[in-house]
Design a protein that fits this description.
Blueprint: H1 20-29, E1 38-40, H2 53-60, E2 64-67, H3 77-80, E3 84-86, H4 92-102, E4 106-111, E5 114-119, E6 133-134, E7 137-142, H5 144-156, H6 172-175, E8 178-182, E9 185-186, H7 187-198, E10 201-207, E11 217-223, E12 228-232
Parallel strand pairs: 2-5, 2-10
Antiparallel strand pairs: 1-3, 4-5, 6-9, 7-8, 10-11, 11-12
């Protein structure tokens, strides 16, 4: 089994009522993928079908996050010409297990409503940027760009933009206002919290260089209605 499940989740006493979190996990993981989604039949040095989970989840309306293996590639023509595996008709759980079977460099977990796919080594690496402990933050009636701006200030140690949240975009989910408070903790927890509070987005993290570092990190938020926003460390901090 590829899922990371907290030990307490398996200590279930028969006849006890099923918790809301368990119901949520079952509902999400057993959801049938009802839209076409072809995944490459093997990974390449640049690309991985496992790293496409953020797009797959957005297609079927499930909260998700993906951390890509570090390093960018100039091109990946090989990946675009590979044979593919069609995931349509599978449950989400079966599809996730298929993707990590294709590329065992990745491992997925269900984290309180959010499907998270990360490199295997990243989950326990104390030097991984998403495992770094950041200060908590609160926001009131801001959109997902505002949430990403606050996340950026904690991860990169940069000041907030000080500007109104941009609301440009076709979809209503770009302009959706929400409020949230995150405690101090690992950066990945804050990204999951943003996804839950908004209710209709996925997150995606990639790195310009290997090994993974905050200096080279790019963070994307992507809504279910095909809008996205991203941020990275500002150039002036790299001079």
């Amino acid at each position: 089994m590829s899922r990371l499940v907290p030990i307490g989740a398996v200590l279930v006493v028969l006849c006890w009522p099923v918790s809301a979190a368990q119901n949520n996990a079952v509902e999400s993981l057993q959801r049938i993928i009802d839209k076409p989604f072809a995944a490459a039949a093997k990974p390449t040095s640049c690309g991985s079908p496992a790293a496409m989970v953020w797009l797959l989840a957005a297609k079927i309306g499930v909260l998700a996050g993906v951390e890509k293996l570090p390093g960018l590639c100039e091109s990946d023509d090989e990946y675009r010409t590979l044979e593919t595996v069609e995931l349509r008709g599978m449950t989400l759980e079966a599809a996730l297990n298929k993707l990590v079977e294709i590329d065992p460099r990745y491992q997925w977990a269900f984290r309180d409503g959010v499907i998270v796919m990360r490199p295997v080594a990243a989950w326990s690496n104390p030097n991984n940027p998403l495992n770094q402990v950041i200060d908590g933050f609160s926001m009131q009636d801001r959109n997902y760009r505002g949430a990403l701006d606050l996340f950026r200030t904690r991860v990169f140690g940069e000041p907030p933009s000080g500007k109104p949240d941009p609301e440009l975009g076709r979809g209503q989910q770009v302009r959706r206002k929400f409020s949230m408070t995150t405690p101090a903790g690992p950066a990945v927890d804050a990204l999951d919290s943003i996804a839950r509070a908004h209710g209709a987005l996925t997150w995606y993290v990639q790195y310009k260089t290997a090994p993974a570092s905050a200096d080279g990190m790019i963070i994307w938020l992507y809504t279910f209605d095909d809008e996205g926003t991203l941020t990275s460390r500002h150039t002036w901090r790299q001079r």
